[in-house]
Amino acid sequence: MPKNLISQLLDVNPSKRLTATEVTSHPWTLGSLDATAPNPTNVLDLMKDYAKEMKDCTNNGEVHDWHKKSN
What we know:
Distance between the termini: 40 Å
Strand content: under 5%
InterPro entries: Kinase-like_dom_sf
């Protein structure tokens, strides 16, 4: 649903683009997510966790698989 909303907001044709009223009444904006859809992920929290892992990794001298270069 968020992709649908964003694509409608970015439509280059102003007559097809959503209005502010339509955005506020969109199901995703109202929190009416489909129960079968995956739960949204908080990207900021994921980035913070990743930064912490990177800091811990460099402080401990550990090298994880995702740090190794592939040949």
